[in-house]
Specification:
This protein is mainly alpha-helical. The protein is built from six helices and three strands.
């Protein structure tokens, strides 16, 4: 890199998903970017639009309207597949093989919740995720639905915990 430490990378705080997502990119691409933590995605995006920072690994949902309006330029999506809402934007993995970072949400219940209630909740959530209106709305925001079983969700949590724990430990990141 010809200007080490001259690129500022915004996040929504030390230890946040956008922060560790950017740190994984830095590690894999062997680039030097200065972390600039913000208190919110709105503040980070405002400074990205005004060119106070140069890079932000934010969610598609928080960024998509700015991308479509031409206020920011999307260089890549961090998921393994291109976003349906932004089909011309490559995945980061297309130019940095092996890179993947997904922002995901799930539903949890207390450990002692009876199995029949967990099964019913899982069935109803999967049915909601299969609703065409829900699919369309989330696709508009750049989201991808991930229906599945509680076992699959448990494996996702375990895998993601290991992956991001390794990044956090390697860089000695401490949440603020």
């Amino acid at each position: 890199m010809s200007n080490p430490g001259k690129i500022n990378m915004a996040s929504v705080g030390t230890g946040s998903t956008p922060h560790v997502t950017g740190e994984l990119f830095k590690m894999m691409a062997d680039v030097n970017m200065v972390h600039v933590p913000y208190r919110s995605a709105g503040a980070a995006l405002t400074d990205l639009i005004s060119e106070q920072v140069h890079v932000y690994f934010g969610t598609t949902a928080s960024s998509i309207e700015h991308i479509k309006a031409g206020k920011i330029r999307a260089l890549g999506v961090t998921t393994t597949a291109r976003a349906e809402a932004l089909p011309d934007i490559p995945t980061v993995g297309e130019f940095l093989p092996g890179y993947e970072a997904s922002f995901w949400f799930g539903l949890g219940v207390p450990k002692a919740t009876p199995a029949e209630i967990v099964s019913k909740l899982n069935k109803e959530v999967n049915a909601a995720l299969d609703d065409p209106e829900m699919k369309a709305r989330l696709a508009d925001l750049g989201g991808t639905l991930m229906p599945g079983s509680r076992v699959q969700f448990g494996k996702l949590i375990a895998d993601e915990t290991e992956k991001w724990g390794n990044v956090i430990r390697a860089l000695n990141i401490k949440a603020e």
